Amino acid sequence: MAKKKKNTLQSHLTDAVSSIGKLVSAPLHFVRPPKPTVARKIASSPGIEHAKGVDVPPEDGSIPIQCIDFGKSGCEKTDFRNVTDLIAHPRPEWGGFRWINIEGLHPFIINELRKTYEFHTLAAEDVLHTPQRPKLELYDTHTLIIVDMVRLKNEALTSEQVSIIVIGDTLITFQETPGDVWDPIRTRLQNPDARFRRYPLWYLAYALIDAIVDNIYPILERYGDVLNDLEEQAMEDPKPSIQQHIYLIKRELYALRRSFWPVRELTSKLTFDETSPVEKKVRVFMRDVHDHSLQIIELIESSREMCNSLQDFYISVVSNRMNEVMKALTIMASLFMPITFFAGIYGMNFEHIPELGWQYSYPVFWGLCITTTIGLLWYFKREGWIGKK
Amino acid sequence: MAKKKKNTLQSHLTDAVSSIGKLVSAPLHFVRPPKPTVARKIASSPGIEHAKGVDVPPEDGSIPIQCIDFGKSGCEKTDFRNVTDLIAHPRPEWGGFRWINIEGLHPFIINELRKTYEFHTLAAEDVLHTPQRPKLELYDTHTLIIVDMVRLKNEALTSEQVSIIVIGDTLITFQETPGDVWDPIRTRLQNPDARFRRYPLWYLAYALIDAIVDNIYPILERYGDVLNDLEEQAMEDPKPSIQQHIYLIKRELYALRRSFWPVRELTSKLTFDETSPVEKKVRVFMRDVHDHSLQIIELIESSREMCNSLQDFYISVVSNRMNEVMKALTIMASLFMPITFFAGIYGMNFEHIPELGWQYSYPVFWGLCITTTIGLLWYFKREGWIGKK
Amino acid sequence: MAKKKKNTLQSHLTDAVSSIGKLVSAPLHFVRPPKPTVARKIASSPGIEHAKGVDVPPEDGSIPIQCIDFGKSGCEKTDFRNVTDLIAHPRPEWGGFRWINIEGLHPFIINELRKTYEFHTLAAEDVLHTPQRPKLELYDTHTLIIVDMVRLKNEALTSEQVSIIVIGDTLITFQETPGDVWDPIRTRLQNPDARFRRYPLWYLAYALIDAIVDNIYPILERYGDVLNDLEEQAMEDPKPSIQQHIYLIKRELYALRRSFWPVRELTSKLTFDETSPVEKKVRVFMRDVHDHSLQIIELIESSREMCNSLQDFYISVVSNRMNEVMKALTIMASLFMPITFFAGIYGMNFEHIPELGWQYSYPVFWGLCITTTIGLLWYFKREGWIGKK
Amino acid sequence: MAKKKKNTLQSHLTDAVSSIGKLVSAPLHFVRPPKPTVARKIASSPGIEHAKGVDVPPEDGSIPIQCIDFGKSGCEKTDFRNVTDLIAHPRPEWGGFRWINIEGLHPFIINELRKTYEFHTLAAEDVLHTPQRPKLELYDTHTLIIVDMVRLKNEALTSEQVSIIVIGDTLITFQETPGDVWDPIRTRLQNPDARFRRYPLWYLAYALIDAIVDNIYPILERYGDVLNDLEEQAMEDPKPSIQQHIYLIKRELYALRRSFWPVRELTSKLTFDETSPVEKKVRVFMRDVHDHSLQIIELIESSREMCNSLQDFYISVVSNRMNEVMKALTIMASLFMPITFFAGIYGMNFEHIPELGWQYSYPVFWGLCITTTIGLLWYFKREGWIGKK
Amino acid sequence: MAKKKKNTLQSHLTDAVSSIGKLVSAPLHFVRPPKPTVARKIASSPGIEHAKGVDVPPEDGSIPIQCIDFGKSGCEKTDFRNVTDLIAHPRPEWGGFRWINIEGLHPFIINELRKTYEFHTLAAEDVLHTPQRPKLELYDTHTLIIVDMVRLKNEALTSEQVSIIVIGDTLITFQETPGDVWDPIRTRLQNPDARFRRYPLWYLAYALIDAIVDNIYPILERYGDVLNDLEEQAMEDPKPSIQQHIYLIKRELYALRRSFWPVRELTSKLTFDETSPVEKKVRVFMRDVHDHSLQIIELIESSREMCNSLQDFYISVVSNRMNEVMKALTIMASLFMPITFFAGIYGMNFEHIPELGWQYSYPVFWGLCITTTIGLLWYFKREGWIGKK
Predict the structure, then answer these.
(1) What residue ranges do the domains of chain E occupy?
(2) What keywords would UniProt list here (chains A, B, C, D, E) (predicted)?
(3) Which residue of B has its CA nearest to C181?
């Protein structure tokens, strides 16, 4: 039922947005992949060993598994239909690094890999139980990095958790759903001159995070365009729908900020901390990602600031309009009430109203009305109610 | 009398909430257990020795006492009706750890335990005098941890103080009222393979805190649902009751935040501080709790942010509506005032009004009225008062 | 004259408060003791030696002076009428500590004590020139602590500066006016088993500060009650007086916060700083005061937050009401303006109005009026202006 | 032209203020000395050597120069008409310290002194190019302190930059205009017992800064009085002029805060920093200034907070009033519109209106009018629009 | 299309501004140079080697290249039409430093220089891919500084990224477009006595940054003038256009702040950090820039604060005016509705209205009207609706 409601809201918002023909670019909406069915029970044993379904392997091929071995001498890419084949797959004789990419979360797969590579059961649990807060966890022999991969897919923002485990010569990535932003990296890996082949494995970790971070820029540009449209609209023709847009954008920017704020810490730790496992040679690249995450957070903050200013501006525009409307009403009422009263006077049926029989009463009456009106208009003019905007 | 007032408010709020049929899930209310009758007097001697009632044992069985001895070789659970029996209860020969759980606060019991286990009199006082701020106190030989256990009970949020004292091989927990979130832990203790049996005693402390922290997630999801409902309502059909809801939710989120903010510090100290008494093996689990407390605080903050945005949005909706209403009034008045005046003119009883006798006066009059009306409508249209929303 | 104004305001506020019968508990007001007549001149020589009146002893008995000697072997309390007697008073043979309490500020007394106990002239000046910011000043041989003692006296909050000087075996306290919160301490000092007798002198300093800090709790509870009342009123029957109350409470909470914020630092320094003069044995007690000051600040903050939320809520209630009033007016005007115009039409005196002579004109007219009214009502209903609240 | 505008604003503000007879004390306005004619060119060479006019000595006597030599054995004050005489002036045989005070900024004088005392060219430039941010600059052989001296002069706040250079046995002060708050210090220097004579030179620096800081207290008291007046007015008789006052006070408090915030850092560095050039004996005095600057900032913050609360309060008062006015209008219109319509009905000239000929029509009509009115009044009463405030 | 929109907005804003004759100085607008055509592809290889166009040299002379060799013995300035000539250009025999200034960004040029001077490929990429966040990057052998150069050009604010690379004896600067604020520096370099000739190369870096920072002052003064104008207008004659101005100024100040905030960190690191590559002799100058950047940020903050206060003030002015308008309407309606009703009464055509035939009815009627009016006016006066402002 909760899902149904959400859809209603979603469609409602889409309608709200599409109804504004003028906006060149509409705000984007976050779409989270459906919650995994394997939720952790409160006060249950920590670690993946006790997760529901840990003993039942998933259907063959239901979760794409890819393994890329690369090194100075070559690069081999293999796809698997199940994790057992992957684990059995031998390393090439020429050594090098191995990147295993799992495009789906299943307790059985994670646990098998955990047993093979001996990473911590809590790391495995963090991979499985999405959403986690983006973070960096240093274990004695391995490192866990969790970030959010935000992508534009069919005009909707999808956000999924990506877990990266660096353990010896192997780097394992887990995604929630198939599809990612790493295809250019896969291509570059084929290139014998690529730094991947010559640099330590952390260079691959850098490249993966960098791709995720850089992918935010076009999304932020999109928000920038929407805000520019809104600004223009607010200046030229402020409509109530503006406030709804601002509300939606603020909410999404806040979600984006919440998702990116910890990335800043994470890259900072990887770059500057003494305990960082990243090699000095690679740290200079990691610093670059750190700079970008700083810049992204500043861009988000500045968009939020702009939202707030626009909202203040819109509210004062509404106040001003109300003022104008009230002035119009007051002027109208002030002009017609007195003269309507005068007309009422001479519509009375008293037998003894001397003016009624007087010959020039009618033109004099008109004169009185016109004089009153002009007097009031002059007064309003002097008070600044008329003629200034 | 203060109690009576509270109930009135409570019932009032419940009514307010129940009157809104559309909200699938209503906001929750905090219920604190009644204040203990043993309040500390100002400037009285610190420590529990001088607390009122410290010499009078409570009625047998009025406060449930449970003792679980566990270790590599076994696990024994015993319930007691009074503290004297508990203290007399021997440890099993196979050694291991002891977890004593007291489900009620009584100065006599606390003092007896203090004398037996020799913990600090200020620690005992903190256990007794609720509510304390959640905190971690390191004494030379023992550690006191105070957290709030927030639970959903019969559609109300109950919050009670839980004090955990770790002293040598013994862990003592004090609750304010019977009932807790630890039943799964009691079950897991029976399992010979459970980490509890192999890990240091601090692993139990971790599990207890973890259960308390994890229990907040479903509560926050509930708030999330309420906020989604409110958002939908605000977009589709904003009613004044929304503001009351937002106010109540904000107040409760603030209370929740105040209760959780210090937990973050506490788990951080236990995890990262040099002086932390937690063993390295257990710290990695404690770090997990720390992550969860960070995530919970971010979720609370983001809900509060959403409340604020919704409120701003609602206020600007109200302003817009007022604008619409005012426009309607002004248009109405502007249309009818002039023509009512015209009608008034020719209702006058002057003897000499030439138009009265003229044959086409009446249709001309109607023409004048219609022209005026159309002119004004055109003006309003041009000014954007009609036809745009 | 400034004083007269203040009184006017005071009485005004009292009236404002007393006029609201429903509020069970009224907000409290701060009363500061009258400024000392010995104000320091700008750019004058620092230190107490040059203060005005430093050479003239105060009238005997005008300022109560009390000296308590206590130690393992006994406790002697003596009252003096002037400072010379105090200084001449010999220490008991059994040694121990001496607590001197001066209930009034006079340059002569402070200077005499300064000369006897050799504390710094700037410390003496800080004692004399109230109000100082609460602070901790470490001198080589002695320590100065300044805090605000806030008390409820005859339904008014009085705030006075308390200065505590710890110098060797002697602790000197200076108050601005007679009366304090320390009577239970004086009683406990008589008890041969009291910790005072066995612990270092700093334990007395702890007890004095603790009494001052703990005394804030009932005051905060009072504010809590007032806020609960206001909340209830705002929900059930929001009156304009609410905003005045909120304003007053916010102002007072801010004053309370300003007075307590530095206490937090002060106790933190005494507890955790390496340079703290407090003995380890006593620090654990000082930590307790520190916890309480943290909790008090959180309670104040949370009350302020509640004030702000209430204010937002009240403002949106006012907006909504205005909306209701405007709707009522608009509906009223829209219903009656058209039909009044119709009536005006047939009140015209044109000779040629065909309808006038028609037999069914009158009932048809009524039909027209009723149709118009029903049509408009239906329109308002559809627009949601009628029937929903 | 910019100057003319400023004057207009100034006079406008003065008018605004003077028009409010009730305010006992009016807000104060900042007056800065006119900008020096020697503005630094962008990207020009740093240092004073290239400043315009550095080669042309000012007219003799146009800038007052004073030199005070003081020490254990004596104190000599000499006034000079030009800087050459000052430099040629020999030190007394009994040694001691020299305080040179220049009451005006001229590149020639500053440069001559720089050449004599060999202070850094950037220090000289900071002295010349006002306004600088208050700051402390430690050079190898000397120290530059820049603070703002705010004074009340003829009911206006004047703010001028004061630069203090401590270099060996000499202390040089530069002011922008003649006149300062240091006369009591000059007097105290004559006193053979004064600490100046016995303490290091930094004691003089302390005394000069202390005089400047202490001089803010009466100004803040003045603002406190204005705010109390405004508060009283807002409670009793809120007028629109209140908002203008609040705006002006907020602006000035912000300026004051901006001018004092860096002083806090400055005194903190002089007191607590390891690198501070101040002798330990004098640091305890400097700490006193630091405390005062903290207290001043808290007082400013609390005044600003009060301004904001007052503004919120005033706005909600305005809203309430608008509500009252709207209610009055709505009640008026609701009462008269229906009965005016009834009267219109029977003013129609239809030939066939049966009621017209009926004998009791008129009293029945009145009965109808009165019944309608009473009914509406009862309705308004029930809705709470009448009788409650 | 996005560009077209921007222009529309731009012209719209210009119109808005120019329509206000009274404002002496109009707010300024940011103009960014058009985005470079060589945008970095997401997840592409980092570094400049793979940038599009890196192999194609730009047209000769299309990008101005200047090289200045300077040292104790001389200063030689040479302009080049392409980067190959520049690289081939020999250093003068008398040694010294070399400043290369490139007034345009082209991957070929940057890459050639990178290969020659061996700076890091990421530094080269940061130079190329504008806009970067202002930052300081320390590499092992060289330093990269990125700042924004904001200039007033034809009444518009242009902002372009300036990258400074200090590498051994060479300093390279990259600008986005031709034209800068460094002409005075070029002139000063010719002066044999200039510090440039005697000081380390970092002195040149200081001078370049200093020129950029100092150039903000006149821009801020311009904003100060606009704000003073707005303030004056708000006090004397508040028009709705004020809010639009405030919105625009706030947005631009925020952009300026965002551009300057990191400069503060950057100069702080260069001045105070242990790892700073700047020589001690030059650091004292760098500290000066740091002070200026602090002052600039405070000025920006204070302008923003003033904007916010002005906005609050304007909104309360609008509220007050609305109040005035509403009062006028209510008074008008209250005066005329009752007497119009009375006139309506005696316009009824009932046959039996006794008053109609009574001789003094008409004057009595007028008396009634006047009495009612005076009574209402007296009531309004008493309520304070008339006569007070």
Answers:
(1) 7-317, 325-382
(2) Cell membrane, Ion transport, Magnesium, Membrane, Transmembrane, Transmembrane helix, Transport
(3) B43
